[in-house]
Amino acid sequence: MSIFRVEMLFKIVSLAQIVSVSNAIALTKNIITLNRILNHF
Fold first, then answer.
1. Which helix (H) or strand (E) holds 27?
2. What is the spatial distance between Cα 22 and Cα 25, in angstroms, rounded to a whole number?
3. Which domain of life, per UniProt (predicted)?
């Protein structure tokens, strides 16, 4: 049971890392797009 919990914990942590990385990439793209829009004015 404890081994199963550890595996679940690792899956949750890795999933959270993937989500945070994809969020950071999306945020960076939004900032770059915003800078391009502001530079056009």
1. helix 2-40
2. 5
3. Bacteria
For the record, the structure tokens of 31 come out as 């900032």
On the question of pLDDT at 41 being above 80, the answer is no
* pLDDT tens for each residue of 18-30: 999 999 999 999 9
Give me Rg for the CA atoms of the chain.
18
Report if pTM > 0.90.
no
* pLDDT given at position 1: 62
Which tokens is 8 given?
A: 């679940």
Count how many domains the chain has. Answer: 1
CB atoms within 10 A of CB 26: 10
Boundaries of domain holding 25? 1-40
